[in-house]
Amino acid sequence: MDRAQAARYGLTVADVQGAVTSGIDKESIAVNIQGRERYAVNVRYNRDFRDNLDALGRVLLSTPTGAQVPISEVASITYSRGPAMIRDEDGQLTGYVYVDLNTSDYGGFVQKADAMLRQKLHLPQGVSYRWSGEYEFEVRAKERLELIVPLVFFIIFLLLYLVFRSATEAIVLILPTFYAMTGGLILQWLLGYEFSVAVWVGYIALFGIAIETGVVMVVYLHEALDRRLNSAAPVAHEDIEAAAIEGAVLRLRPKLMTVSVVLASLIPILWESGVGSDVMKPIAAPIVGGMVTSTIHVLILVPVFFAMMKERALRRGTLRASEENGDEKIA
Predict the structure, then answer these.
(1) Sign of CA pseudo-dihedral 189, 190, 194, 199
(2) How far is residue 76's CA from residue 23's CA, in Å, rounded to a whole number?
(3) What is the pLDDT of residues 30-82, one digit of tens each?
(4) Is 154 helix (H, G, I), strand (E, B) or coil?
(5) 94 Cβ contact partners less than 8 Å away, ≥ 6 residues apart
(6) What is d(CA 292, CA 76) in angstroms, rounded to the nearest whole number?
(7) How far apart are CA 303 and CA 321, in angstroms?
(8) Fewer CB atoms inside 10 Å of the end CB: C or N, the chain?
(9) Burial of 313 (C-beta count, 10 Å sphere; 0-12/13-18/19+)
(10) Is 85 exposed, middle or buried (0-12, 13-18, 19+ CB in 10 A)?
């Protein structure tokens, strides 16, 4: 707009902008009401009066003296490239570049793209960029998981300590549990799932199942060992090994039943393609894969660690039967 030329005709900026709004764009002057329906009534020039630059230049403006001048007398009309919408964030103009990915690894794509931009893109002063969208949600979720996952393990350790009154037995149940994670990692890799919130939810559920069955296994092992400790005969290393085998055998069928039920309920999810399957599959994959290695962990590793711990207590002379109320398992 040529402000000086418009002032000669007695026109203000609002007069010119009003003509552009009402004639070229549209101006809502009324609302037509038909029952519950509402229709806006807009006024603007016919397409013939606004379909090219020459026609736009002939749009008339009314001056305070009653004369009419074409808009081309007070403004220059040209085409220019620009954003479809003007946006701002924190008082600064902002433009968005949308990218559709054919992969779910948003973090890996952003790392590669950001490294390339830092090498080849030289931004002028006052201009910056940042990544948003799904990547921003992923970063936010990872920050939460960095707090939630350690908190979960701490709560599990605390509960195990309250049950067995022994930090050693609590560690024996927690550390081998990471072995159960290997099956989940293998199946996750085979199915091509990246680490996400859904995947970590599946691992947390896997840890819970593995530790729950491990606690029951330790209870059976204690009962088998207590029967030998409460007898009059002295306990030797062979008795500890026999008690570990006896307790593990008693837990074999219940453990296999638990694994079978979990696998039968979750494996069909891996073949689903309906609504919500994209969320349920990453949750089910770690549990399905981890249940296989969790079986080995509970049936073999827990009895082995239990026997090693009790043999160590036997050598120290601190091995004794658990109390009947279950408050203490080992001194």
Answers:
(1) negative
(2) 17
(3) 999 998 899 989 888 888 777 888 888 888 888 888 888 888 888 888 888 77
(4) helix
(5) 87, 88
(6) 75
(7) 17
(8) C
(9) middle
(10) exposed
Residue 314 CA, distance from chain mean position: 48
Amino acid at 161: Y
Please answer whether residues 169 and 330 qualify as being in contact, where contact means their C-beta atoms are separated by less than 8 angstroms: yes
Distances in Å between the alpha carbon of 125 and those of 122, 128, 129, 224, 289? 10, 8, 12, 75, 52
pLDDT tens sequence across 135-179: 777 788 778 878 887 888 888 888 888 877 778 778 777 776 777
Residue 204 · residue 195 · CB < 8 Å: no
How far is Cα of residue 258 from the mean position of the Cα atoms in its chain?
29
Q: Minimal CA–CA distance to 251: which of 303, 173, 289?
A: 303
Among 242, 258, 255, residue whose Cα is nearest residue 299: 255
3-state secondary structure of 236: coil
Give CA–CA dist 106/99, Å, rounded.
11
Helices (H), the chain: 3-8, 13-19, 53-57, 106-120, 134-164, 167-174, 177-191, 197-229, 237-266, 277-296, 302-316
CB 98 within 8 A of CB 83: no
**Please, what is the angle between helix 177-191 and helix 277-296, to 10°?**
140
Beta bridge partners of residue 93, listed in sequence order: 88
First to last CA, the chain: 90
Asked if residue 92 lies in contact with residue 129, where contact means CB atoms within 8 angstroms, the answer is no
pTM above 0.85, yes or no: no
Closest Cα partner for 152 from 85, 78, 198, 203?
Answer: 203
Question: Can you read off the two tokens belonging to residue 59?
Answer: 């749009």
Strand partners, 42: 28
Of 309, 21, 323, 70, nearest in space to 175 by CA: 309
Taking a C-beta distance cutoff of 8 angstroms, is the pair 215, 173 a contact?
yes
Both tokens assigned to 2: 């040529």
Whole-angstrom Cα distance, residue 68 to residue 5? 14
Which positions ≥6 away from 313 have C-beta within 8 Å?
319, 330, 331
